[in-house]
Please model this.
Amino acid sequence: MDISRVKPGEFTKTPIEKTQDPGLGYDLIPKERYTSAAFMAREWDRLWTKIWLWGCASEDIEEEGDYIVTAIGKEEIILVRQADGTARGFFNVCQHRGNRVMVGQGNATSFRCNYHHWEYRLSGEFENIPDAETFPQGAPPCGGLRQVRVEEWNGFVFFTLNPDAEPLLEFLDPLDTHLGPYHFDRMVKVTDWTVEWDCNWKTSVDAFNESYHVQGIHPELLYFIEDKFLQIDTYERHNRYLIPFSTISHRVNETTEIPHLIKHAMKESGMDPADFDGRVGEVRLALQEFKRKNGPEMGLDYSDLNDDQLTDDYHYMIFPNITMNIHADDLMLFRQRPHETDPDKMYFDVQMFRLLKKDEERPRKPRNERWKHGERSLGLVLDQDAANLPGVQRGMHSAAFDGLWLGDQELRIRHFHKVLMDYLGDD
Amino acid sequence: MDLGLRGLKAAISGGSRGIGRAIGSLLAEEGCDVSICARGQENIDAAVAEFRARGVRAMGRSLQGRDGDAVRGWIRQTIDEFDGLDILVANLSAGGGTNDERYWYRNFEIDLMSATRAVEEAYPALKKSDNASILIIATMAARETFVAPMAYNSIKAALVTWSKQLAEHYMAKGIRVNCLSPGPTMFPGSNWEMIEVARSRTYASVVRKQPTRRLGEADEIARSAVFLASPAASWCTGSHLLVDGGYTKGVQF
Model:
């Protein structure tokens, strides 16, 4: 079945041009990148401590004094809203004896270490050191919590451990142009989960950077998306693919009944599948037209989005560890973080955001919930992904496996590795 | 056994795929001219070409089953083109759907009304035929609790009742009316093909109830249907044949 797409010249703010494929060859990707402690150490020195990292949603620290503690590798960072509305970030380390200062998230008027009650202002400076006169050498010369650089973009707070990092927008380029039209800052967060997975963080990144696996582990999605004929685009660091949704894969036959996931998408937008008289292959364009026409009345502003964006998944990766399934009405953002010490473990953060309809009550703000793989469901599709990953990681250690044998549908994985190695140097 | 179909003229609503398509193919093979209606032109074209390849006349019309005028127009066009009509198979269906009031209207208009409209429009031609028969395709789900309560099952049940009363009414006019209820049937593009992949648990629960652990195939339904529609079934009228591979367990008296 032919799938129609927005063509050059038709309305779009998000660039739709296909980039030229970068010609990265077909070499094996060495498996040691996923298993070696030495490689992990190099990632810390040359990647995690050098680049911009997604920290939290701006709404997580909405009001003055709202703070959230996030972690990257062995470091914990406090992100906090200042009186002037800006966000700041600090290493979550008391300068007295090294204790963790804050945990979780909340609202504070100051940060106080619970060990000896050393206290810091929201702006980081020392507020109070009990019995200060017993430190004849004075307070530590750093003056308070050690600061990290923080910048906000489109409803998200980023931080970097690198004082010399380029400005955030430069790092994100060209994603501001691409993703600005979605106005993530108008969405509200509805889910905030962290799951410990038994695999390397890149094993997880890879799992979301190709749709070749859909016919393998997500067969039900063949009746919701076109999984093979996608547009893949690679940029300097970041990459994307554009996946038609609310259609069926060329791998399956068109049915008379509308598949349930497509029905669900129609209903979510207020379009009644029982009144749709077209064929299954005609739903996608009809749904685009319906949303374009009825969105404003439902309080949904799609005016900066092109027609395909109303149904499809514009799937972006923010290098190195953010996966975004972006739709007109919602965003599923995954952050993959390395474990503190173990290359065979990682943290998988699920952050879901949703555009609210007119008069829709804002759901209670979610607080981060944490568990280990298998203890709770992440929903069918993510469970399917998760179930697979420990097996992949285990196989990476086998003497019978040398590395990743990637095809054209996995170009984004190859591109990711190219950028990764640009930061890390040779294997 | 000669089914006596050679030279007869048949119309099948929804005959471009699945059970309807298989009935059309078999009727064509038996020497019937075949006319179908359906939504998608490509499937119609492919079906018509296949029927013609069997050496009979064939035609098809693309229409929306809700559109009563279109359904009636297709029957009139068929009668004109074939110069008469002997067999009408009311097979068109909207399929299932749950939890939405609109499905009742949808199945009412597409499953039920397309059948009553086609029958009404075909009646004058059928009355003139020496081998007139009407076959209504219902579903096993009309009599068996199946998957979920939904409009499809209940509206099909209305067709079963209607077909019996129609049989009594038309008997004297020389028109036989029968009803056939298929069990879940697998064919390329069938909803079951989708359910097997997209709702594998529902599929597994259905297959477990089939004694042979498989679904029916369109040809297996079509052979029974073609017999009932054919002059060979001259003493069958008002009958309701369940073709479900043993899915239902109740005794049908």
The radius of gyration of chain A is 23 Å. Chain A touches chain B through 22 residues (CB under 8 Å). Chain A has two domains: 1-51+167-427, 52-164. The first strand of chain A starts at residue 29 and ends at 30.
